[in-house]
Each structure stands twice: as C-alpha cells, then as structure tokens.
Amino acid sequence: MLGKTYNQNGKEIEQIRLPKEIFEVKMNPDLLHQVVVSQMANRRRVIAHTKGRGEVRGGGRKPWRQKGTGRARHGSIRSPIWVGGGVTFGPTKERNYKKKINKKMKKRALFMVLSAKVKDKELRILEDLKLEKPKTKEMVKILSKIQHLKSKIQNPSTLIVLPKKDEKVIKAARNIPKIETIEARNLNALDLLSFKYLLIPKKAIKTIKETFLR
C-alpha cells in the first residue's frame, strides 16, 4: 500500500510504500474490543474507598462494661453497626481491575487500528517534523497546512507520533486543544482510537517497524 507524504508546508512530495504487515491487517472487532477493554481497565484508577473498623479514628476504649448495665455488649464505637463506625463490604483501594492480555494480541490490535486509519484516509505522513523553537504558534501553522485539518470536522483531534522524544514538538503541541503527542514505541490501540487523525513522520514508521516487528 502506498501512502502520500507531505512536507511541513502541506505540499505532497512523494508516495512511500507502507509495510503491509502493519498497515494492511484485516480487522477483527472481537479481538480489538478485548484489547481495548483490557487497556482501559489497566489504566483505571481506584478512587472510591470506605474505611473499615480498623481504619476509623477513635473507638479504642470499650464504651461501657460488659455486664450489669442492661445494654447490649459492645467492644468499640467504631463497629459497623454504630453511626460513624466502619463500613462493611464497601469499596476499597485494594480492588484490582487489571486484565492480562498477551503481547501478540496487543500488537495485532495496534496493527488493525493503523490499517483502519489508512483505509479511512485518517493518516497523514510527514517527510519530517522539526521545530527551531518550542512555539505553539509554529505548530499551529504546520497543522493548519496539513490537508486533514481541512475536513468538515471543526478542530479534529489529532495524535502526533514521534520517532523519539522531542521536547520542542511536545511543548509546542501540549497547549493546542485536541492535539497530543506520543512516541512511536509507546503506540497502542486505545490511544489511536481516542483520536480522529494520525500524523506520522517517516522516521516514526521506521521506529514502529523496528519496535513491533522484531
């Protein structure tokens, strides 16, 4: 499969052949769903937490003596049956939502999404992406010249794939709404599906091939 390559001025300069092992993979919705669900679960932060009787403050002293008062026996006012006491069977931070999935499945799902981006014409290849200074204005100028921003969607979300960490590009892009950057070696199906368009320099394609087709 051939892919059009553009320079930073948005001009088409050549067509390159994309690796079919990465960009011509047949879609398997069930596999993709399984991988995406597992990645979402692994990123999930456990926030809800209720305190058990051992975590609630106070209650070190027995509220009244065991016998002779005519009242029920109690050992602590932090018992779950007391108001202000611990919570029984409540949500805790010890919950584990992580799901295991093998590398082969994650890699296959990544290639399927990349293939879908090419098929749907949502991938743009840049000859190179370089900035002299980490200026947001310069990044906006480059993005505005790329053809995918001329779509009917106003301010479409775009993921910029970098061959390696580039502080200038990262700083220039981080203040632009719906624009994010990621290193090619960290690509995954979930992040790709979170953005409408994909912007990849030629060097990043080489990095993807070296990382995932070893």
Q: Could you please describe the fold and organization of this structure?
A:
With 214 residues, this protein is an alpha/beta fold. The protein folds into two domains: 2-44 and 101-212, Ribosomal Protein L4, Chain: A, CATH 3.40.1370.10; 47-96, no CATH class. It is 32% helix and 14% strand. It contains seven helices and six strands. The protein has helices at residues 20-23, 29-43, 103-119, 136-145, 167-173, 189-193, 202-212, and strands at 2-6, 12-17, 123-126, 158-162, 179-183, 197-201. Strands 2-1-3-6-4-5 form a six-stranded mixed β-sheet. A hairpin with a 5-residue loop joins strand 1 and strand 2. The chain is elongated and about 95 Å long. The protein starts with a strand and ends with a helix. 21% of the residues are buried.
So, CATH architecture of the largest domain? Answer: 3-Layer(aba) Sandwich
The residue ranges in which pLDDT falls below 50 over 5 or more consecutive positions are none
Average pLDDT, all residues = 91
Taking the sheet with the most strands, its summary is: 6 strands, mixed
Topology-level CATH name of the largest domain: Ribosomal Protein L4, Chain: A
Q: Report the radius of gyration as a whole number of Å.
A: 27 Å
Q: Considering DSSP H and I runs of 4 or more, what fraction of the residues is helical? A: 25-40%
Structural class: alpha/beta
Distance between the termini: 21 Å
| Beta-strand content estimate | 5-15%
User: What is the assigned CATH homologous superfamily of the largest domain?
Assistant: Ribosomal protein L4/L1
Order of helices and strands: EEHHHEHEHEHEH
Strand order of the largest sheet: 2-1-3-6-4-5
User: What is the tally of helical segments?
Assistant: 7
